[in-house]
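User: Show me a protein chain along with its predicted structure.
Assistant: Here is one chain, sequence first, then structure tokens.
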Amino acid sequence: MEQKYGDCRSPGQLLEAALKDRGWTQRVLAIVLGVDETGLNKVISDKRSISPELALLLEEVLEIPAKDILQLQSEFELAKARIVARPDPGRQTRAHLFGGLPVSEMIKRGWIDASDVRDVAAVEEALAKFFNVDTVGEIEVLPHAAKKTEVAAGATAVQLAWLYRARQIASEMLVAKYSKTSGLKAVEKLRALLSAAEEVRKVPRILAECGIRYVIVEALPNAKIDGACFWLNTHSPVICMSLRHDRIDNFWFVLRHELEHVLQGHGMEAVILDVELDGERASATDAVSEEERIANAAALEFCVPQKALNSFIARKAPYFAERDLLGMAATIGVHPGLVAGQLQHRTGRYDRFRGHLAKIRSLVRPSAVVDGWGDIAPIGP
């Protein structure tokens, strides 16, 4: 736009200034452009917007770039819209809730009492109830929410939703009184189950008898959670697993990992949320906290005594025969899948011995408190 028209704040002002500069009337401009005079008058009075076609005609006659005319038109329309627009803080709230939480999945799985994700009022009311707050603005997945669960930094809204569901279910359970002594006894009883995949069905009962609430909650999309450890109070620990990896080696590793958190008193002040507890994370590395290193080491040793595994690898590497793996498993009294899983991690050969990685989800679910895969854990009113 020419500098002399730079003070114009609307397309009509721009055209009036250009006409005055030339000594033209609106009728003259209409005749020159070959357009309806009444329509042009509405444009100059800012009662009608300038179309791209008219902008090109004006560019040709008034020598004002069409893009500048249309930019001024756009800015003018936006300015008018701002005058009548009413700010709604609820929009940001809905953006965080509907954009961050898998609301449709939560409805489908019976976590929130709403029939249609498009019924915003009903969904917001149900979400407030789910997160145990009075109003939707207090839900802790919102950046401004005052109440925050003590959980690992960086937990996503999806992960927090999963955690809330686990806490809801665990609070409904009745178990024996927990003590560290009973927890250590549970470890020994669980160790006796390692030789056969079917023995996982006994896990929920053993944990309940020692005072640990054990819950299985199917993972939400993109949550990548394997397990969590938290306490309802100072003497009521909870272990929750997602079983997103349906393999015997991952099951026992994650379970013993979370159990070590319980034995060490981890998660009492801040929830332990274990994300992607598989592959490289299954080894003690500098990338994890001291709490995680302790739990990882205990889990590895529980599944396969590391001294025995190191000796086996030293003797057999780089070639590991099927009979050697089976012999190793029989010697230490564990399912071959536990040895296979750790060999895969050690060697990076995840294509080897996959046939031994027995599926256990269907074996443990009948005896556990489960939410997911079509089952909805009962929650009181």
